[in-house]
Amino acid sequence: MNIELKKKKERRNYIIRHTLFILLMAFCYVFVSSVNTGGTLPLLLIPCAVCYAVREAPFDSVLYGCVCGLLLDSASGTLTGFNALILMWSCLMISLLFHYVLRRHILNFLWLDLAVIVIQAMLHYLFFYRLWEFDLSGLVFRKIFIPEMIWTNIWGVVLYWLTGIISRGFGTVTEHYIEEKSEDIVRE
Question: Of the residues 11, 24, 94, 167, which has the fewest C-beta atoms closer than 10 A?
Answer without folding.
Answer: 11
